[in-house]
Design brief:
Layout (H helix, E strand, L loop, with lengths): L1 E9 L5 E10 L6 E11 L2 H17 L1 H4 L16 H10 L5 H5 L5 H12 L8 H6 L19 H4 L4 H6 L6
Antiparallel strand pairs: 1-2, 2-3
Helix pairs in contact: 3-5
């Protein structure tokens, strides 16, 4: 598999958006057989590179290496995100000039599109076989989910997990 940073679209304000793609190559090493898009699109290549580094470290080095950088978990495991949450995610990207935050109403169509996409999509579920194969051991120190999030989700996203623990906001 080869991973690339690829331009994916231009917004109406002529901002170029980028995404990380994983290409599965054919035996010839040139033909792309399949493409796996990673989870975010952004105008900020630095943001995407940090996102990639987080995933790369997890895949190569394991959960121990990224745990302190996992301050919160998205609260969407068992339900779809709300319009408000999706709107906040849309605003957090920092891809747009500062003035757009003041005129946040301009992002409502994007947030509405996100909301409709979420409403028309299934909530992902692991197969029963995978669930049985991948049981989490009781007391696993790395087993966290949205129930472990601090009350102020958005402020916590800027901190390391160890900072949240040291300040008593989260237990582990």
């Amino acid at each position: 598999m080869v991973f690339v940073l690829e331009r994916c679209l231009h917004t109406p304000m002529r901002i170029t958006q980028w995404e990380i793609l994983g290409h599965v190559l054919d035996e010839d090493g040139q033909t792309v057989r399949a493409t796996l898009p990673f989870s975010i699109v952004s105008a900020q290549q630095d943001l995407l590179k940090r996102h990639w580094e987080y995933m790369r470290r997890y895949m190569e080095d394991g959960v121990e290496e990224i745990f302190d950088h996992t301050s919160v978990c998205l609260p969407i495991a068992d339900h779809r995100e709300t319009f408000r949450f999706g709107y906040q995610v849309t605003m957090i990207d920092d891809s747009y000039p500062v003035w757009i935050y003041i005129a946040g109403i301009l992002l409502i169509p994007e947030a509405l599109g996100r909301y409709l996409a979420m409403r028309s999509s299934d909530i992902p579920r692991w197969s029963k076989r995978i669930e049985e194969e991948c049981q989490i051991d009781p007391g696993d120190p790395y087993a966290i989910d949205a129930r472990d999030n601090p009350p102020d989700f958005w402020k916590a996203t800027e901190k390391r997990r160890s900072e949240l623990v040291a300040s008593g906001v989260v237990l582990r």
